[in-house]
Amino acid sequence: MQDIPDLLDALGRSPRILASFVKTIPEEKLDLRRGEGFWTIAEHVSHLAEVQPMLLGRFERFLKEEHPDFIPYLPGKDEGEPAAPVRMSMDAALEQFATVRAKQLELLKSAGPKSWQKSGSHPEYDAYSLYILVRHLLMHDHWHMYRMEELWLTKDAYLTRLE
Q1: Within a domain: residue 134?
Q2: Has residue 120 been placed in a domain?
Q3: Which of the 8 DSSP states describes residue 67?
Q4: Torsional sign, CA 163, 156, 91, 134
Q5: 80 part of a folded domain
Q6: What is the CATH number of the domain that holds 76?
Q7: What count of other Cβ atoms lies within 10 Å of the Cβ of residue 147?
Q8: Contacts of 10 by beta carbon, 8 Å cutoff, 6+ apart
Q9: pLDDT above 80 for 163
Q10: Between 4-24 and 41-64, two packed helices, what is the crossing angle to 10 degrees?
Q11: Predicted confidence (pLDDT) per residue in 86-120, tens digit
């Protein structure tokens, strides 16, 4: 867990990286659906904004509860829920992402060593802790940014198909 400062630093950089990246994508590419079951770039950006409050809540639970028990967040799996995120305006999505990320970082920077070592339960994972969740969040940010770049620039024959 010696990399906690690096993880927090990287999470703090994600909003600027995402905003700079999204601003380079031509407007006509934001809503292009590259195939059945594919999210658009705008939907990926919207998803990143939408999940931040839920993740903030998970961080808060790790700080307040002895051994929090979580349920999976599976967008589009509940009845009546759309398969893809609801498209937000890019400015609103980027603002929400940055604002909630700042709150997350403020909370995480106040966490003591005991909180970082707390474990929780999550049915999707063999191990779950505040530390794992923070690392997972960084990977989640960058996975979606990679996917957006792939959707924007990759030729059809080389596009990763997510089944």
Answers
A1: yes
A2: yes
A3: S
A4: positive
A5: yes
A6: 1.20.120.450
A7: 17
A8: 138
A9: no
A10: 160
A11: 999 999 999 999 999 999 999 999 999 999 999 99
- Backbone φ and ψ of 96, nearest 5°: -65, -45
Distance CA 80, CA 102 (A): 32
Backbone torsion region of residue 140, taken as left when φ is above 0, otherwise alpha when ψ lies between -120 and 50, otherwise beta: alpha
List the domain range (segments joined by +) for residue 23.
4-158
Which amino acid is present at 2? Q
SS3 74: coil
Q: Give residue 94's identity as a one-letter amino acid code.
A: L
What residues have CB less than 8 Å from 5, skipping those under 6 apart? none
E strand spans, the chain: none
Q: Phi, psi (5° rounding) for residue 40? A: -80, 170
String of b and e for 111-145 (b: at least 16 CB within 10 Å)? Answer: beeebeebebebeeeeebbbbebbbebbebbeebb
Residue 163 lies in a domain: no
pLDDT digits (tens, 9 = 90+) for 54-95: 999 999 999 999 999 998 887 766 666 677 889 999 999 999
The C-alpha atoms of residue 135 and residue 42 are separated, in whole angstroms, by 24
pLDDT of residue 4 exceeding 80: yes
The first and second tokens of residue 144, run together, are 């979606």
Bigger pLDDT: 40 vs 76: 40
